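Archive entry. Fields below.
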Amino acid sequence: MSAVLVIEDDDRIRLSLVLALEDEGYEATGAPTAEEGIAAQRRRPADTVLVDLMLPGIDGFECIRALRRAHDVPIVVISARDDTHDIVAALEAGADDYLVKPVAVKELTARLRALRRRARAGAGDEVPVLRFGDLEISPEAGEVRLAGTPVAVTRTEFQLLCELAEHPGRVLSRHQLLQRVWGYDGGDERLVDVHVGRLRQKIEDGEGAPRHLVTVRGLGYKLQR
Amino acid sequence: MRRAGLRVRVVAGFAAGALALSATMALASYQVARQSLIKERERTAVRAAYDDAAVVRIGLGATTRPDVAAVLRVLDTGESRRALLQRQGNWYALKADEGSTGAIPVALQQQAAAGTASVQRIRTGGHASIVVAVPLAPGDVFYEVDSLRELEHTLSVLTVVLTLVAMGTAVLGAGLGWYASRYVLRPLRRVADAAQEIAGGASKYRLDPAAEPDLARLTTSFNHMVDELSARLERDRRFAADVSHELRSPLQTLAAAASVLERRREHLDERTATAAGLVTQEIAHFQQLVNDLLELSRSDRPAARTTTDVADLARQVCRERRLPATIVAADGESRWSVDRRRVGQLLGNLLDNARAYGGGPVAVSLRLDGDVGRIDVDDEGPGVSPEDKPLIFDRFVRGRSAGARADSGGAGLGLALVAQHAAAHGGTAAVLDRPGGGARFRVDLPGCRP
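PREDICTED_STRUCTURE:
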């Protein structure tokens, strides 16, 4: 059974989500504030965290950053806000996915399953180390090194990097990446763009055009040596 | 009758003004030139006549019976002058010329006979001439007729020149008027361009009042009007967005709670289960309505075009609705530059519409024709009545002919969104009759060639 932590200040939403997720077979717990949520996650780590953006005290963005610093847990934002600005900010803070309220429970569980599948993937595959110049990716160990130095990446970022690394020099469209990394057939392509942006901050030297992770205008992304 | 345009009137006014002015000037200068030329000519004629008269007087006084013809022959009268002598009632002339004696006015003859020298302008043989009468002795009068033919020629040349100048000035005036009106109308054209830009969706477009200080009031009020309009539009949009937004949180609770009810339906008694089913269904519709309203409130956002395989997208949308993907037919290039999300929603709404009112979709055809991507969604329903066709893309409109199936739960926003998504691409949405019965919804999206 998979554990889900729901950080949501609206009592009715929190209660109904916990009830519905329990019905779907999850072990769901609720936290009304970011502080309580972060503490609960430290006490007893859940497999997935759902976070609302508008929280009293520490807001959702800060909450995501705090969770991300301490845990490698998939974080899904559920918010009533659907501005591109908010979505990008939440993903940049470290969220793996962003859903706009109201979310149907079926859709929510489908996404949670996709995230879990990805979390399990990677373990047990016998894949050698992939090299792209000074960038080394070892899918088996779940490690990324840039010029020998380990780079800390989230699970989603790692999945994205592996997907591109397994097709060296080939262009993958945003749609394909959404399908393969997030497991969505259709969805918000900004997810891909923001994660690529975050990944670039970690694996590119930050000066001039990206060397490894290249945008192919109108088509998608590719990883090159 | 249509009133002539401002431009035409300004040009005509300038031309007429220039013509009047130049004609007056030409007429005046013609008169002045003519007067002074004639006066000068007269003076010359008189002087020459007196000189000749002196020669004739001396010639006549030399002998008691002088040879008049010989005396006259001494005179050097040139081309234009003719000398005549009236001696005791007889006329003597140097050149044999019948008409010339008759041309001399009787009044002049009488005046000269009375001993007064005089000058008169006459017309003879179709030309103007000057007659100078100089009495020599009682009974003897010397006349000299000086033709003004050359002067007349000069004046007629002058007339032609001045007429041409007047006409040229009028044309120049018209040109000046054309240029001036263009210059004056330029700021107005800028206002018109701005209005067009704003109507086309560039709501941030404003005029610079400093660009044309004389029209500052126009540009300021124009900008003010646009500000007011966009503020009002923004308020409307905000209201729709706020309402939908506020509905989202309670809807989340409803959606989650409904899923709990739905899962336990078989444990409920029949009445409760039916009620729970209704609640769940309505929540789904409500959710769709709120999402559509939010989408409509974002009408100002432009299409975010990326290269998209629309055939793939259409098949995916079909699969999501459990429709056979084989109804999708793509003709030619299926990779279009469109807003993937919007086109996906557009296709979904057209398919939903066909399912709700048209007995289900039978074909989705995609065709890239030049630059324009054409999407046709056909159904086998009763079609759309002609009076419903212009209304069907309006918000909350459900066709009269579709009234019978209104319980299918369409919120009436689906086709409005289709039109909006088409418009975001600069395109159009229309409903036609499908050959062989049913309706054909057609969306044309320009700028699709990647």
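CURATOR_NOTE: Chain B has a mean pLDDT of 84.
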